[in-house]
Amino acid sequence: MDRSTLITLLATRSTRRGQFTLASGKTSELYIDARLTTMSPEGLRLIGSLGVDILRTEGWEVDAVGGLTLGADPIAYAISYASASTTKPVRAFTVRKQAKAHGTAKLIEGPFVAGDQVAIVEDVVTTGRSTLQAIDAVREAGGKIVGVLALVDREEGGKQAIEATGIRVVSIVRAAEITAILPR
């Protein structure tokens, strides 16, 4: 039930047809601005509980979840918040696109600790490039990646590119499930 509600939210709030240039540089007739869902109260509630369920179902014993800012941030926070009432709360962190030039010059912000078992989260996977960037940053900081949890898999090869590195990718929703209910 929650998953079908999430698909409906993504279709009605976050998805548009037209001509778009994606962050990957690819052009597409479909644009999914997941932030319109992930930053809404209903989206946060749904994503948090579904994310915690997937971590448990997959057997991913993680200490923390996070990914490349900005798309991954609300997903990581929602999962962390939803996990607070479980027997294994999960911390959230964010990976900057580049390290700060001031202060502590951190690339990873939040309560991430070297040695953490981590699930990388992503809002929309197209090519997998931003997910792989987050994976590299977390590994370089001493994190151990147990898997990737994507909100939406655009089904354009990103999942396969990530899995080619030996990391399992689980998506909550596939683009085809969203487009199936979009008006023409």
Query: Would you identify the regions where 5 or more consecutive residues have pLDDT less than 50?
Result: none
Overall tally of structural domains: 1
Number of helices: 7
Return the CATH architecture: 3-Layer(aba) Sandwich
Question: What proportion strand?
Answer: 25-35%
Helical proportion? 25-40%
Task: Note the gap between the termini.
Answer: 25 Å
**Cα gyration radius (Å):** 16 Å
CATH first level: Alpha Beta
Characterize the biggest β-sheet. 6 strands, mixed
Describe this structure in words.
By secondary structure, the chain is of the alpha/beta class. The chain has one domain (2-179): Rossmann fold (3-Layer(aba) Sandwich). Helix content is 38%, strand content 27%. It has helices at residues 2-14, 35-38, 41-58, 73-83, 129-140, 158-163, 175-179; strands at 15-21, 27-32, 64-68, 91-95, 108-109, 117-125, 144-153, 169-174. It has a six-stranded mixed sheet, with helices on both faces. It has a two-stranded antiparallel sheet with strand order 1-2. Helix 5 links the parallel strand 6 (117-125) and strand 7. Helix 3 (41-58) packs across helix 4 (73-83). The protein is globular and about 50 Å long. The mean pLDDT is 95.
